[in-house]
Every structure is written in C-alpha cells, then in structure tokens.
Amino acid sequence: MADEQFQEKTERATPKRLKEAREKGQVPRSRELNTAAVMIAASASLFVLGSGMSRDLVTILQNGLTFDRATIFDTTSLANNLGDSIVAGILTITPFLAVCAVVALGAPTLLGGWSFSVKAMAFKGEKLNPIAGLKRLFALRAVVELLKALGKFLVVGAAAVFVLQRLAGDFLMLSTEPVRPALQHTAWLCAFALVVMSSVLVLIAAIDVPFQLWDHAKKLRMTRQEVRDEQKETEGQPEVKSRIRSVQQELARRRMMEQVPEADVIVTNPTHYAVALKYEDDMSAPTVVAKGAELIAHQIRKIGAASNVPLIEAPPLARALYATTEIGDQIPARLYKAVAQVLAYVYRLREAHRTGLGTPDMPDIEVDEETTL
C-alpha cells in the first residue's frame, strides 16, 4: 500500500472533519464580502441620515460657539456647555454608528457564520517561522490577495472618476450656496458618491466568495486513507463490530431461552422451526416468547421438553409464526384461529393428564398458505 504521506487529497471533507475545523476556527471567510456589506450599509445610512446629521452638527457647533460675556468668565458654564455638546454630538451620530455596528456583526453570518474558538487564539510557534512566512508570501492566496487589491483599486477608482464627472457641477455650485444649505448639500453629495463607490465592491465580493469557499474546501480535503481511518474511528473496526454483534446476539439468545420454560406451548415444524407461545388473562393475544430455526429450534425444543412445555407439531403454523412475528410480538390476527385451536388442545391435554383420561385427538390446524414461508 502506498505511503499515506504521498497520497493525494482528493476526497471531500467529512462532516466530522468540518466540525473539527470549525472548532479550531477554520471557517470560510471573505473580507471583501464583510467590507462591501459594511460600506454599503454605512453609505446608505449616511445617504438617508446625512442631511439631518449635518444640520444637527451645525446647530451643536453654533450653540457651542455662541455664548454671552458672563459665560466666558464662568468656568463651570463652559465645562457644562462642552459636556452638553459632546453628548449631543454622540446622540446625533449614534444611529449611524449603530447601523455600522449591526452590519459589521451580522456580515460574517453571510458566509461561514459566527465562530469563536479558543484554539484559534492559542500561541503557535510556526507562525513565527520566517521560512513559513516566506511560503505564505509567495503562495496562491497571496497572489489572489494582490489581484484583489489591484482590482479594488481599479474598480473603485473608475467609480470615483465616474461620480466626479457626473457631480462636478454640483460640487462647484456649493461655493454659491449659503453655509447651512451648502453643508447639507455637501453631506448628500458625499453620501451619494460613497454609495456608488461602495456598490462596486459587490463585484469584488462576488468573485472573492466563490474563491474562499473553494479554498476552504481544498484545505480540508482528505486522502482516501484518512477517510477510511475516520470511518474506523467513528464506526469501529469491522472485527470489533462483528464481535459486538455476536455478543449481543448471544445475550439476546440467552434471554430468549430463559423465557422458554414459561411458555404455554411450543409449535414445531417439527425439526426446522420452533416457536414458543405464552398467553395470560391480561394479554389481548398470545405472545411469542422465543423462536428459532435449525440449531436454535433444537435448543428451544430441548429446553421445552425439560420444562414439561407441550410440543405441538404443526408445520404450517410454525412456519407462519416464524415468518410473521418477532420475539415479544403478539400473533397476527389471521393466525388467531389456528393458535386458538392449539391452545385449546393444550388445555384439554393438561386436563386429561390431571384426571387420567385418554389423550385427546389433535385437531386439524388450518393456516392460509400465504402466511407461511
């Protein structure tokens, strides 16, 4: 067998491998997707709230710089005014910051979901290895990151040129407007330009997301030997599983044999099959307490004979019971009549032995052919 070290990793990661990778903090991540989501949300909220924010900030600035002579010489008033201006400014920009924070926290759920791993934060000496650092520098990922940076520069630069060309007249007209309207107009223009330039980041994210998914799946690929080893660890060695099954079957057989002496009757084939039945007043129908074929049937008959359990030869009924029931099951309704004939015969047989009368005649047991093997 080829050495596992030289085997190619051609198999997809198993659910167990994916779970272990997630526990280590290895989940697909796209910084471009997160950046695009935050920038679009920030620019959109600035576009919607920008005019109101600029108006409120101008008012705060105006109020902060407007005071009478008495206030100038009152250090307490100046400190209070500064504190009030700071609080008002924070309240003004809070909705904008809240939108950015919510999107920044929610963006990772778009790809990979949230993942907090202590193992990912653990110290790893190989991260300080300069040779490993050089390998990462010239790896495929580094090349892709460089291409993404150039792509972002070109795309965002082209969008900026487009916006400046379209809004050049509006920017030039700002000098002719009053201060307060000009500030609001400036906020609107900046927000609009930011929306356009942020939207083009979607193109970069649309390319980066499939690459990150492919790269993540590639890193977690497994060799065929690794898959086989994992299956052995998860499901156990075939030899061990076979041994466990045989032990379980043996224990189940022993428990079954312990129920044979309590049976009311054992229906036989007479040699190939044996089914032990028990019926009590609180049962809705007779119950199978043991069944078997060949050697097991022989053991059931042997234990039954030693325990004075009646053995009734009824081949069609024995085959039908063996084929249609499991241990612990009640007999099917279509066999009620045949089993009732057997139990009635057993009760007459016991009465005859108790009273010393002759052995009663065995009735003809009627079983439909479709219920037999």
Task: Describe the model.
By secondary structure, this protein is mainly α. It is 65% helix and 5% strand. It contains 14 helices and 4 strands. The chain has a 4-stranded mixed beta sheet with strand order 3-2-1-4, sandwiched between helices. Strand 1 (265-268) and strand 2 (273-278) form a beta hairpin. Helix 2 runs antiparallel to helix 4 and helix 2 packs antiparallel against helix 8. The model has no long low-confidence stretch (mean pLDDT 80).
Summarize the structure.
Helices cover 65% and strands 5% of the residues. It has 14 helices and 4 strands.
Pick out its properties:
mainly alpha, four-stranded mixed beta sheet
List the helices and strands and how they pair.
Blueprint: H1 15-23, H2 31-65, H3 69-72, H4 75-106, H5 118-121, H6 130-137, H7 140-173, H8 179-199, H9 201-219, H10 224-235, H11 238-259, E1 265-268, E2 273-278, E3 287-293, H12 295-306, E4 311-313, H13 315-324, H14 336-355
Parallel strand pairs: 1-4
Antiparallel strand pairs: 1-2, 2-3
CA-based shape: elongated
Biggest beta sheet summary: 4 strands, mixed
State the helicity in percent bands. 55-70%
Q: What's the tally of helices?
A: 14
Rounded to an integer in angstroms, the radius of gyration calculated over CA atoms is 42 Å
The average pLDDT score comes to 80
Count the E strands.
4
Order of helices and strands: HHHHHHHHHHHEEEHEHH
| Low-pLDDT stretches | none
Q: What structural class do the secondary elements suggest?
A: mainly alpha
Distance between the termini: 47 Å
Hey, roughly how much beta strand do the residues contain? 5-15%
> Which sequence of strands runs across the widest sheet?
3-2-1-4
